[in-house]
Amino acid sequence: MRYPLPPKDANGDYLNGMSRRLGHLFNFLGMQEKLIPYYFSSDPNHSPPFKLFNNVRVRANAESDWNASALGIRSDIIKVGTERILEDVVGPFALGLFKDTQEEGDTKGNGWKVMMRNDIYSTRAYMCLKYIPSASFGLEPEHLETNVVNWIETLDTSTGTFDRSLTESVLETVAFGAVGGEVLDWKCIE
């Protein structure tokens, strides 16, 4: 099991963050010596692994469009890229939830309220029916086509993941620290 812990202040106390309470629990139980580093991914600057998709084989840290045009993906969407689009989809929700955790004593939970208004969508349905790409991408202000959503899902995760709740995708983003600039210290128990 891996645990994402927020950074500590000068006194060794955990700063506000998604897993602050977990860090306090580990401290309370005297488990600090039992926590060892967990490496969430390989170092792309050191012998990066290969990725293979659409018969295109590249190093994990190399740029590639993965022959997306063969899937009918428009060149302007390819240029923006899967990571930026997916971050644009879940990022605003994740940032709202992250802000909720930063404001101790905040009972409004505005990020959570916005998330719950969109909880009726799967990630796929939200991307196809409600999401409009940020204007900064220079794309037409229209929902994503199914082939684009499938392309993003294939390069980001496993098949069927976008069929789960949008909220689940957002919470995964928050849990893995991909929002708010929070630097997480990944640990596991020895």
Describe the overall structure.
The chain has helices at 20-28, 75-80, 82-102, 110-117, 123-129, 146-156, 166-175; strands spanning 2-5, 35-37, 50-53, 56-59, 185-189. 38% of the residues lie in helices and 11% in strands. The N and C termini lie close together (10 Å). The strands form 2 sheets. It has a 3-stranded antiparallel beta sheet with strand order 1-5-2, with helices on one face. The chain has a two-stranded antiparallel ribbon with strand order 3-4. The chain has one domain. The model has no long low-confidence stretch (mean pLDDT 83). The chain has 7 helices and 5 strands.
Q: What is this structure, in a nutshell?
A:
This protein is of the alpha+beta class and 190 residues long. The protein is 38% helix and 11% strand. It has one domain.
